[in-house]
Design brief:
sugar transport; 4 strands; transmembrane; mainly alpha; 2 domains; 407 residues; cell membrane; transport; membrane; two-stranded antiparallel ribbon; two-stranded antiparallel sheet
């Protein structure tokens, strides 16, 4: 074997991405660079350039702005988690944002008709599953490429949303729906939930280690194992303490974390989740070992539909209304796909994590938030977002082993 010093930069990148923590490195570096620039470098530059300034205004890193950043990124993150599931299969869903819009619009109509908010939420989640699974059936059993099916779904669902909302906007006054984004968890409960989440992650890590030992696979070192847990704990507690410093942890963020944890558990610790990775890695091999590839694809698209519906509920609660522009007519779809890809999920399938999608959503949200605070134009935001997305896809392509780029 060649010594490490002889590896090319591309080969080192590939080896880094194959490690457990390696997939987090690019997105964390991007997030750190954005936060350092907008949070520290730009305020200092503005201070030195302003003769009348008496102090440095660290607005971006203030607890209030971090709180708002998490809330602004919640809908993007929810859709990105769902999109990650189909990306793991090597597929794509271009209709996720439109599905969220239809479900949000339906939610508004249902509560306006007098249906209790909790019942309306359950109905739209069921509708979201059906919308996603219907596309999955066309992809899996008819053989139409996912790009074509979901592009048709994007156009069709956009039209459906316009039919449901002829005026393009509908206010939601239901107390249950509005409470999702307005209820704040007491500080002590936020810390307790953070502790429980870290304990759960540690338990899952130990369980995975035990399963690998039972199968005779290579085990992680104690440093790697507990380093992952410590790394996750630092992020979780830093987020909770920062939000507590301003107001408290919103129920919306707790629900988003819970949904992500469930999807993360399903994709990494269940036979169904392992089959998703197997199909994404090599669908033909998965079929030969007895996996029902078609059903797996339908189920995956059903999950995207469910997550899109939940994202629609979150958005309707946060905005207090449903509008065509906020969901189907804006940049939500591209930002959600960008968050999943920037988070490190491979466009070629077989590699990725829903937790990476959350970090990717924070990158997208942080970039937009920082540019807004600095007075940048909408054109600047689009160009910067495009550059980061292109860089993320380039890293993904370079880090794949030779010959695996084609499906």
């Amino acid at each position: 074997m060649q010594p490490n010093s002889s590896f090319s930069p591309v080969e080192r990148l590939r080896r880094l991405r194959e490690t457990r923590l390696g997939s987090f490195v690019p997105v964390l570096l991007a997030l750190a660079a954005i936060w350092l620039y907008f949070g520290i470098a730009l305020p200092i530059w503005e201070f030195w350039g302003d003769q009348d300034a008496t102090s440095i205004r660290f607005i971006f890193l203030s607890p209030r702005n971090i709180y708002n950043l998490f809330m602004q990124s919640a809908v993007i993150a929810t859709l990105a988690v769902g999109i990650t599931v189909v990306l793991l299969l090597g597929e794509i869903d271009l209709s996720a944002a439109a599905t969220a819009g239809v479900c949000a619009a339906l939610l508004g109509v249902l509560v306006l008709a007098g249906i209790p908010g909790w019942a309306a939420c359950l109905i739209v989640m069921a509708v979201g599953i059906v919308m996603g699974a219907a596309q999955g059936l066309l992809i899996a059993y008819v053989g139409i490429p996912s790009f074509v099916v979901t592009l048709a779904g994007l156009l069709g669902y956009q039209g459906l949303m316009q039919k449901i909302l002829p005026t393009g906007n509908l206010n939601i006054g239901d107390p249950f729906v509005r409470a999702i984004a307005r209820i704040l968890v007491p500080d002590i409960w936020g810390l307790l939930l953070a502790t429980l989440l870290v304990v759960a992650i540690a338990a899952l890590a130990l369980r995975r280690q035990a399963e690998r030992k039972l199968r005779g696979l290579e085990l992680d070192t104690a440093t790697t194992l507990w380093g992952q847990v410590a790394f996750f704990a630092i992020i979780v507690f830093a987020a909770v303490l920062t939000m507590n410093a301003y107001r408290s942890v919103p129920l919306l963020i707790v629900l988003l974390t819970g949904v992500t944890a469930i999807v993360g558990w399903v994709t990494t610790s269940t036979p169904f989740g392992r089959s998703i990775f197997a199909v994404g890695g090599n669908a033909e091999s998965a079929r030969r070992v007895g996996m029902n590839v078609k059903r797996i694809r339908v189920a995956a698209f059903g999950i995207v539909g469910l997550l899109a519906a939940i994202g629609g509920i979150f958005g309707a609660s946060r905005y207090g209304s449903v509008s065509y522009t906020a969901f189907a007519g804006g940049s939500l779809l591209l930002e959600s796909i960008g968050a999943a890809v920037i988070g490190g999920t491979s466009l070629f399938g077989g590699r990725g994590s829903v937790w990476n999608a959350i970090l990717g959503a924070l990158v997208i949200g942080s970039l937009g938030n920082g540019l807004d605070l600095s007075g940048a134009s909408a054109a600047d935001k689009l160009m910067f977002s495009g550059a980061i997305l292109l860089l993320a896809v380039a890293i993904d392509a370079l880090s794949r082993p030779a010959g695996n780029g084609q499906r």
